[in-house]
Design goal:
- The chain has helices at 17-22, 27-31, 35-52, 83-96, 107-116, 124-132; strands at 2-7, 10-15, 60-68, 72-80.
- It starts with a strand and ends with a helix.
- Helix 5 crosses helix 6 (124-132).
- The model has no long low-confidence stretch (mean pLDDT 83).
- With 136 residues, the protein is an alpha+beta fold.
- It has a four-stranded antiparallel beta sheet with strand order 1-2-4-3.
Length: 136
Amino acid sequence: MKIEKLTENKIRITLNLSDLEEEHIDLHSFMSNSAESQALFCSLLNKAEKEVGFYTKDYKLMIEAIAVPEGNFILTVTRLPEKEQVKKQLKIKNILIDDSCFHNIKIEVAYSILRDLKIAEEDLRTVYSQLISPLF
């Protein structure tokens, strides 16, 4: 079993048949929505929380599962953003549609948008300056 944190909101869990055997789950139970497979999945999420800091409480999750050769299974778990975060992202997207948007908003709002876009704190001033500079 291997748990990898791909992004802040996504992990990949790789399982093989021996992992299932250790959990006393047969392939049929794992592939169905059995109580055993649900318990295993909850156990995997708890392990992901401890090992890579992937918290799922109060999040909606999207689960992608694929079977690959050699009897391996890859589960990709994605935390879906909360409604408020989605609204905020849409608002930012609408602001950024305008090429001169940073000319029309307060610097505090611009910096907040840049932070939401994951611009490093030490780069904010440089990025902001580039955005408000006229293009030649």
